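Task: encode each sequence below as structure tokens.

Item 1
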Amino acid sequence: MLCLIVGLYILAVSAIGLVAGHPLSTRAMAGLTTVGLTLTPSFLLILFLWHFVYLAIVVRPRRPIQRFVGDLRLNITDGDKVLNGTLALIAIVFFFSTFNFAKDKITYFQPFVWDSYFADLDRILHFGRAPHEWLYPLFGTPLATTALNAAYHFWFFLMYFLVFMACYDRHSRARSTAFLFAVVICFVFGGNILATLLSSAGPVYYREMGFGTDYVPLMDMLYRFNEVSPVWSLRVQERLLEAHHMGGAIKGISAMPSMHVATTVLMTCYLFTWRRWAGWLMVGFTAIIMIGSVHLAWHYAVDGYLAIPVALGSWWLGQKLTRLVNAPSEPVKTT
């Protein structure tokens, strides 16, 4: 079913691209494939180490190494698991590459027109001040900014790791299938549809897109901090702007809603179905991502506020869809 949904999505994006005079490109596919080949060994190593530690500390078999080798052999020789997991992973790679293509074409259908409204709404909701101004007393140092940026970039690794884990999960297919469905629904509805209807560039590009100098002090602060402690987001932001004007491998400016926040909420829901302590850890990580999205000038606070119900709605729909396609004997845990 996941492959069918992704296939329909690719066809829809291809058709829209052809009508708009921008046929679907495969450049992003090569980049995502490279990322996948690079990260997969790391994912496997983490999973193997986790399972070995779990066996040694929790299960404590008489011969842990032999038990570990046996479990490893069982997983590798499970043809259905390997085949279904690989197909799901390929579908997700195709989906994300198509999503990135569609995200890059947002301004062909809707220019950035909402930024000033979201900036004003931010001030209205936060008692007359921009949200980043409230955050400054706590995070207005080079070291704190670097820590937030590290967490913000760690999101990328964590997101792909959990997707990889969900693709090959054999203990609760319903739980993992619901997560994969929810990811696709969230990116399509939030990252394509809402992002087009509410097209905005974000505080980092507020001046470049002609909305004024409201966020120049924030950007100046980040560049000052970067001279003391690295703020890696600045380079990514510069490359996105260059690609927006001249084309490039990394492109696709879009702020509303925050897909960092939305997907972190999805990961939280998913991990709550696995272990409650992991879910609560993700609640804290979600707060960090929300703060980082504002402090690093990627998003208005309202981008994250809207992302939360989008993610929760996607999780709910993912569970409903899973119940429709899965055998009734394996219930989906709810959060």
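Item 2
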Amino acid sequence: MNSELKLLAETTDKLFGEWNDLADAWRTLEETGLTRIGISEDLGGSGGDAEQAAAVLRSAAYHSVAAPIAETLWLAGPLLAAARLPIPDGPLTAATADLRELHCRPSDDGRGWELDGTVRRVPWAREATRVVLVIGDRICSLDPQVCTIRPGANLAGEPRDDLRFEAVRVDADDVVTLPAPVDLRSRAALARTVQIGGAAQRALDHSLRYSGERVQFGRPIGAFQAVQQYLAQIAGEVVIAELSAHSAVRAVASAGDASPAVAAARVNACRAAGVVAELAHQIHGAIGTTQEHALRLSTLRLWSWREEYGNETVWARRLGERAAALDDPWHLVTSMHTV
């Protein structure tokens, strides 16, 4: 880790560690510029790169911060910047519209667009100041108040809301056609992959601490071989998930074809999420399932995030299809590095 990443990690660890005690946590986050890392300054960002943005996501996930940081920093902000649209203050979110369920057509006066239909399970829509929709090859920025919001949530209790549009007018200035369609799903899947790494590390830390404190038959349970094996398995899965996520983030930053690295990282992270959550609860026993214990904040997120934007099976199939279509699939496998 270079000096800049180390300083960033220390800063975010302190901020997110105190998140629930801050009077206006989101404003504090914005004042530090952390919601716009990875976006160039001339486009309204704070500068920096994808690795630094990923470090912020990981830290927020480690501390189980209940806020749309990934959606603002990793999804909506970069989309608005790519479309040369203003990036407003406040929490943001983004989603890809299913063209079978949402219709976008020119308005009758030809000066804007009209939306009809539904966009499902938009993260944190009810708390966002702006929603960025990917509609085919168009980027649409709109105020969520113009539509009807039907609240929903994932297993961890994070908002996943349906947006209903009924002849909603959007100004032409808020809709931009891009040269090529945006693969928001892949980028969002990588965000969840990075977040899984942070949450998995926190579950490991909880397990290490509890196994050293909980005494059974006169000694800490961490002294028993079975528990040590659980801890070793968790640690191994955390390392694999973190390394593969790091590799994928670096591939994205290189501006090359990152899809194989993202798919591989997603497969590793989804598998790790299941193993880590299961074994962490095995170590903690009944207390780990209680409302009072912090372990659930990590494990519920692990179970939720591994299902969003495609689970392990979906991404394994995508990776397999990509390899099967090549004359030399071995080159694809050996060309994905973690350094």
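Check on item 2: The chain has a mean pLDDT of 94. The radius of gyration is 21 Å.
End of task.
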